[in-house]
């Protein structure tokens, strides 16, 4: 049985959880997980394969076992540590922002002073910010979770599979908008306007499934106070737990994903569907839901549907939408595909 170390001491707990779920009871691979305390607290499973780690410990921990492959879930900080890991081990890195993975030293210096200056100076002075690009380049392979973004050294990493659960009929047609309620990542102002001007006798529930704060929280509070009885909205002012997220995603009739065309990471422009994957893609697969995306979002997947001008009528037409998620995204199929890739990464 081949041995893998999976490291997540930074950000993406949900992807670490997806990998754990997929590899559970694998007959081909034994996986040890190295998580920061923050990540470990967000993981559902607590087993002997999960180890608390941080940037000061990880090199020593890895040296205690002979790993065939080391997967790093996020390289958005601790660049000096991860560069040192890349020099000793066969590593693959999951890439979340393609432009950032290729950013030059000049642009890094320039961007330090655009935002979050104290934090970014800490990355420069204590965490080896200038090693960022070198770390990605040193990796044996770079992994991407969206097949449409894979090319060359950037390998598609099959990770998302469709959960098997019984879908119950909702009294209200339920539209879930998953993700943090922030105008930076999604066009919530457009969503608020559409709901506010909605004239229908149909019963709708709109669920803003992410923490709302600042201007967006005020807007959604105001919106909730001025709606007819047949239209209901649900929102959260605190971080949404994985249990609540799971509950509402299962209930959803349709996902509404009004993502912005552009996002920023380290003051660097990233384009959804071109240099950056949206987590809503994984949401649609995991819960087997049709998802309405902006018209300009490019996808070859049959359940990712371009938004029409009358999006409310479009939602209603999707009530009986059929797509065989289990054919393309069953757990066994995705695990088989993932294990095939992992074997290839080990032999690289």
TrEMBL record:
Q: What is this protein called?
A: Glycosyl transferase family 1 domain-containing protein
Gene3D superfamilies documented for this protein: Glycogen Phosphorylase B
């Amino acid at each position: 049985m081949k041995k893998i170390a999976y490291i997540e001491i930074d950000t993406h707990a949900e992807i670490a959880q997806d990998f754990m779920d997929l590899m559970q009871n694998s007959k081909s691979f034994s996986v040890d997980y190295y998580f920061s305390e923050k990540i470990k607290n967000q993981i559902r499973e607590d087993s002997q394969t999960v180890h608390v780690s941080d940037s000061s410990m990880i090199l020593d921990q890895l040296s205690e076992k002979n790993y065939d492959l080391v997967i790093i879930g996020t390289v958005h900080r601790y660049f000096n540590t991860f560069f040192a890991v890349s020099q000793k081990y066969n590593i693959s890195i999951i890439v979340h922002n393609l432009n950032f993975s290729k950013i030059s030293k000049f642009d890094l210096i320039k961007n330090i002073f655009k935002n979050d200056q104290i934090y970014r100076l800490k990355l420069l002075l204590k965490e080896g910010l200038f090693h960022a690009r070198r770390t990605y380049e040193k990796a044996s392979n770079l992994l991407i979770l969206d097949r449409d973004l894979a090319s060359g050294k950037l390998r598609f990493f099959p990770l998302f599979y469709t959960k098997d659960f019984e879908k119950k009929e909702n009294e209200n047609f339920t539209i879930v908008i998953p993700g943090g309620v922030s105008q930076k990542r999604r066009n919530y102002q457009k969503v608020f306007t559409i709901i506010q001007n909605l004239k229908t006798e149909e019963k709708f529930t709109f669920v803003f499934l992410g923490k709302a704060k600042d201007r967006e929280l005020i807007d959604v509070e105001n919106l909730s106070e001025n709606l007819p009885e047949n239209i209901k909205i649900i929102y959260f002012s605190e971080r949404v737990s994985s249990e609540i997220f799971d509950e509402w995603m299962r209930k959803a009739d349709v996902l509404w994903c009004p993502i912005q065309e552009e996002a920023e990471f380290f003051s660097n422009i990233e384009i959804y569907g071109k240099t950056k994957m949206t987590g809503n893609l994984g949401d649609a697969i995991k819960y087997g839901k049709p998802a309405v995306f902006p018209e300009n979002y490019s996808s070859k997947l049959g359940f990712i549907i371009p938004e029409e001008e009358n999006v409310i009528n479009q939602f209603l037409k999707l009530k009986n939408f059929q797509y065989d998620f289990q054919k393309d995204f069953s757990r066994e199929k995705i695990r088989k595909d993932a294990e095939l890739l992992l074997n290839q990464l080990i032999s690289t």
